[in-house]
Each structure stands twice: as structure tokens, then as C-alpha cells.
Amino acid sequence: MRVTVTVNGTERTADDVWPGESLLYLLRERLGLPGAKNACEQGECGSCTVYLDGEVVCSCLVAAGQVAGREVTTVEGLTGAGGAGLHPVQQAFVDAGAVQCGFCTPGLVVAAHDLLARVPEPADPEIREALAGNLCRCTGYEKILDAVRLAARRQAGR
Ligand code: FES
Ligand code: FES
Known about the structure:
Blueprint: E1 3-7, E2 10-14, H1 23-30, E3 49-52, E4 55-58, E5 71-73, H2 88-95, H3 105-118, H4 124-130, H5 142-155
Parallel strand pairs: 1-5
Antiparallel strand pairs: 1-2, 3-4, 3-5
Helix pairs in contact: 2-5
Bound molecules: FE2/S2 (inorganic) cluster (2 copies).
């Protein structure tokens, strides 16, 4: 089937899509967007997290056939002011040392971006809950918490 979907603000079309293949596969293999990562393909690790119509989803669990006519935002679509450079949440991950191998980072950035849009100054339990579906094998999570706290402080102008 042909799937037309808006990705990061641009209408994109892919042909010969098997309706049951995942949104993650569509993004990575057909649309050339490798930001969302493929680790478990079972909705367990969060490395494939993207926005679908403004809600965070595990893109490995969404069928490509379901996204026709909808809006997807991936980590590549989160940019700095004026559409250039790193988004402040991405910059905070870099500055806090929250990126080691980086495999979990795109999913965590999207999840943290969603949290800070909903809760601009989250308490630590709120951060932990929001990121509970995103696994990281490298950092021990403390630097990731630091990154979200830093992004929140910067967002608040402190
Ligand atoms: S690859 Fe989607 S949750 Fe792990
Ligand atoms: S930085 Fe390696 S899995 Fe998180």
C-alpha cells in the first residue's frame, strides 16, 4: 500500500508498504530517518519513541498502515530556535553527560521533551515516572535525571 504521512512537518510518501510493518521500520528503512532506534521491537525499551499526533508512542508497536494521514515527529524534528541546531532538551543531555553509547538517547529525548511540555518544572518522581518506559544500559540514569533537571531550569530561565 501507499502511505502518506506528515513527518517532522513535511508530507512524505512511501510505496509498497506492508500494512503490518511497524512505523519504526517505515521511518528508518523507507523514509531515511534513523533517529528512532530499534532495540526490542516489543514496546519494552523506549528507544523507538516518537510523537504520533502529539502523543508519545513506541513506534515499533504502531503499524505503518495506521499512520496514513497523521502527523509524526521524531527526534530529528526536535530542533533549536529557528529550526536549526540542537533542541534545548538535546543540548541538556549533551551538557549533563547523559549520552554514553547514545542508543537510548533519541527515545529519552522525546520522552523528556513530552514531559517538559506537560510539566515545565517536574519533581524527581515525575521525571522518573515519565522516563520509566525508557531503558538505558550505560548511564545508571543519574545523568539522565540531571539532563532533564537542567533542561527544566533552562526552560524556566534559571
Ligand atoms: S524498540 Fe520499540 S520499545 Fe524497544
Ligand atoms: S547511553 Fe547507552 S543505552 Fe543509554
